[in-house]
């Protein structure tokens, strides 16, 4: 199958372009509501979601099955929220991006109107030395192998370690100053969230839109050893595809590792959102899956529905604050890996596929095991990250929704 796969745009001269968000040569960041892309890029927080489930299993009988099935069918056209990659300045200095509000998404049904966007502001950092933090595989301390005179990032160093919190703080200051210069739009910078790698803009006019601007260090070195057994797509997208994707750069975002009830301010977390986005777009074992003229599948529809379900539950229950759309995305990638055949995702069986995905996600919660798709030793559902009580609460709410035909879809 691998010989028939289309090779991703791994050329350095021609980096994958993100269509959801683009950065003009003058540094302008413009977030768009469309989720298409030519290549890998950071995944977005969105009101939409993407696919998973196994139509080959027997469907479970639920209360109000016809109503649930019809509701799911109505929601199939939902679109994922936009995310994007902002090109870094030629120099690694922190320079203020000129910010303008993203174009308003077209009015569509609730699940298909994205109102949350991610923008990655890339900063290339050559010759860095990564030191794994506490055997996590995901968090690292960043040092420079050689610090030349005039290194513009030298004042962010603490005992030769590049401080993530210092850089993020400076980045936030720059964004705030730029926002002050915007006179014709109602835009504000939200309060800093502990442990978050993003600077969040809230745009209230003409409609409320949230934009996360994420500072990211770009490294073109080999991926860290903790990723060696990750990206398990050999039996799905092929060995050649996996090799090609691993030649892409990787990113580090200023995410503090949690230490007890506090955060380690110097750490950076690995990010492969550009690879995730590429896979989301090129998801079929047949390269023509979901292309114009090709057969369609319901992979993305399942993902959109599950993301939307989690989002609505989080609106109602503060107990679910620890969960995010990335957990749903990671789960669906594992589901697609286990069920790689396109025929298993026939759109005619969307209701069954979605039910299978819900079952899979609940099982991950119950066993407290959701391994990072790129870093297998990093468990996103570990006790250290999310307590058992929160996971049991989410299981209870998901099962209630499923057994009652997902009434929460009608509330918002």
UniProtKB/TrEMBL annotation:
- Listed Pfam families: Mab-21, Mab-21_C
Which stretches does UniProt call biased (Basic and acidic residues)?
Answer: 47-60
Q: Signal sequence: where?
A: none
Q: Where is the composition biased (Pro residues)?
A: 94-105
Q: Which residues cross the membrane?
A: none
What range(s) does the Mab-21-like nucleotidyltransferase domain occupy?
111-282
Q: List every stretch annotated Disordered.
A: 1-105
Q: Which residues form the Mab-21-like HhH/H2TH-like domain?
A: 298-399
PANTHER family cross-referenced by the UniProt entry:
CELL FATE DETERMINING PROTEIN MAB21-RELATED, CYCLIC GMP-AMP SYNTHASE
What family does the database annotate? Answer: Belongs to the mab-21 family.
Return the protein name. Answer: Cyclic GMP-AMP synthase
What species is this protein from? Microtus ochrogaster (Prairie vole)
């Amino acid at each position: 199958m691998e010989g028939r796969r289309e090779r991703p745009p791994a050329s350095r001269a021609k980096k994958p372009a993100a269509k959801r968000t683009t950065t003009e040569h003058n540094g302008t960041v413009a977030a768009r509501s469309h989720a298409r892309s030519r290549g890998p890029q950071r995944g977005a927080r969105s009101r939409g979601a993407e696919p998973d489930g196994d139509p080959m299993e027997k469907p479970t009988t639920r209360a109000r099955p016809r109503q649930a099935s019809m509701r799911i069918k109505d929601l199939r056209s939902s679109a994922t929220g936009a995310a994007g990659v902002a090109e870094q300045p030629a120099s690694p200095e922190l320079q203020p991006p000129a910010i303008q509000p993203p174009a308003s998404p077209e009015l569509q049904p609730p699940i298909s109107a994205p109102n949350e966007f991610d923008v990655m502001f890339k900063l290339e950092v050559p010759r860095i030395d990564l030191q794994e933090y506490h055997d996590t595989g995901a968090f690292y301390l960043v040092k420079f192998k050689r610090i030349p005179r005039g290194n513009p990032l030298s004042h962010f160093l603490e005992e030769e370690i590049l401080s993530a919190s210092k850089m993020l703080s400076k980045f936030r200051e720059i964004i705030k100053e730029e926002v002050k210069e915007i006179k014709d739009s109602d835009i504000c910078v939200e309060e800093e969230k502990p442990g978050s790698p993003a600077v969040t803009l809230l745009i209230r006019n003409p409609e409320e839109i949230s934009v996360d601007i994420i500072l990211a260090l770009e490294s073109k070195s080999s991926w860290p050893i903790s990723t060696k057994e990750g990206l398990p797509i050999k039996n799905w997208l092929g060995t050649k595809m996996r090799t090609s994707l691993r030649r892409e750069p990787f990113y580090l975002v200023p995410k503090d590792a949690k230490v007890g009830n506090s955060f380690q301010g110097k750490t950076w977390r690995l990010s492969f959102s550009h690879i995730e986005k590429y896979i989301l777009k090129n998801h079929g074992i047949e390269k023509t899956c979901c292309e114009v003229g090709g057969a369609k599948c319901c992979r993305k529809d399942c993902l959109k529905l599950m993301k939307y379900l989690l989002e609505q539950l989080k609106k109602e229950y503060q107990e679910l604050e620890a969960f995010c759309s990335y957990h749903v995305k990671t789960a669906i990638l594992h589901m697609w890996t286990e069920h790689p055949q396109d025929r298993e995702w026939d759109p005619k069986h969307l209701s069954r596929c979605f039910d299978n995905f819900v079952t899979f996600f609940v099982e991950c919660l119950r066993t407290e095991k959701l391994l990072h798709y790129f870093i297998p030793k990093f468990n996103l559902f570990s006790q250290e990250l999310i307590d058992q009580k929160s996971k049991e609460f989410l299981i209870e709410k998901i099962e209630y929704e499923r057994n009652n035909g997902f009434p929460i879809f009608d509330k918002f």
